[in-house]
Predict the 3D structure of the following.
Amino acid sequence: MAESGPLTADLHVHTTASDGELRVEAVPAAARRAGLDVVAVTDHDRIHPDLPAPVQRRDGVVVVRGVELRVDTGDGRVDLLGYAVRRTEALDDELRRIQRDRVDRAKRMIDCIESRLDVTLDIEVGNGVGRPHVARAVAASDADYGYGDAFERLIGAGDPCYVARDVPDFRTGVDLLSEACSLVSLAHPFRYPDVDAALDCLSHLDAVERHYPYDRAVPTERLDAAIEAFDLVATGGSDAHGTELGNAGLDASAYGRVAERLPSPETES
């Protein structure tokens, strides 16, 4: 199931609404630079407030409103990508709860770091805050820590200033996204410590992120078998947190199978 043509869609992009560097108004231009026709904005635990429709054409680029939701399977935590998300009361309530937890978590990590390192971190704590924001603040402070050092020595799992997030369970997350989204996909299945447990989730989902820029060779034949067995849609994206898009994604043929499940793009007013 290798791509057979140039990429046309990057369906996993983060913006400044969570921990990305790209402002949403700059997404179409970034897409055009990468030769893309379609981008999905999938911020962590947040529906971008400046995207008014589930699918919209903006400056000649189709922008799919999405969300990336972390959930707990009981065997570990995985990320779900919801595409063409519509607002529902239940999902909005859960996302607000998660954002409150994110803010509380960030404040606790910041307090720990400032006390431990005797520094003051210049960071604004609000909706969308995550560990990358804290790590960037550490790197910009007087502490003798870079961005990677902060993750490896301060706020990585098991580190002294790490605080775990309170995430919904898998079934709750799937139900919330299935009600609100046209398509629910498992993100980057080979990034999890327990790949087998992550792949066990696929029987409950619509899709799986088949194309992703891993830093190593992965057994994609396992995904191809699951796609066939569970009649899944293959999605793909770069998981971009910077301003460069299109490091992975879908060609026109593969995106066509995704587009069949999405509403038609609305025209930007």
Summary: Residues 7-86+181-267 form a domain with the TIM Barrel fold (CATH 3.20.20.140). Helices lie at 27-33, 89-117, 131-140, 147-155, 170-180, 195-199, 220-230, 252-259. The CA atoms of residues 19 and 132 lie 6 Å apart. The beta strands are 7-13, 38-41, 55-58, 61-72, 77-83, 183-186, 207-211, 233-236, 250-251, 266-267.
